Amino acid sequence: MDIVYAAEKTSIADVLSNRLRNRVQPQDIEVHENPDETGSFLVMWRLKLYVVSPSGDVVPDLLV
């Protein structure tokens, strides 16, 4: 399990790379705190939005 402690783009890009099986560069993502869930982040990459939870789970944000 990967645990994300802070909105550090390098760490979040690594988590996304592992989960999506596609190399994600830190400069290619936008990271924002998720107001709907404490400790999680909204990450935009290639016109898609993902939610990264504190436990390292990555799921597509289906509300977009």
Overall average residue pLDDT: 82
**Terminus-to-terminus distance:** 27 Å
Rg calculated over all Cα atoms? 10 Å
Largest sheet composition? 4 strands, antiparallel
Helix fraction bin? 10-25%
Using DSSP, what is the number of strands?
4
Low-pLDDT sequence parts = none
Structural class: alpha+beta
Estimate what percentage of residues fall within beta strands. 25-35%
In short:
With 64 residues, the protein is of the alpha+beta class. The protein is built from one helix and four strands, in the order H-E-E-E-E.
Topology:
Blueprint: H1 9-20, E1 30-33, E2 41-45, E3 48-52, E4 58-60
Antiparallel strand pairs: 1-2, 2-3, 3-4
Describe what you observe in this structure.
The mean pLDDT is 82. With 64 residues, this protein is an alpha+beta fold. The protein is globular.
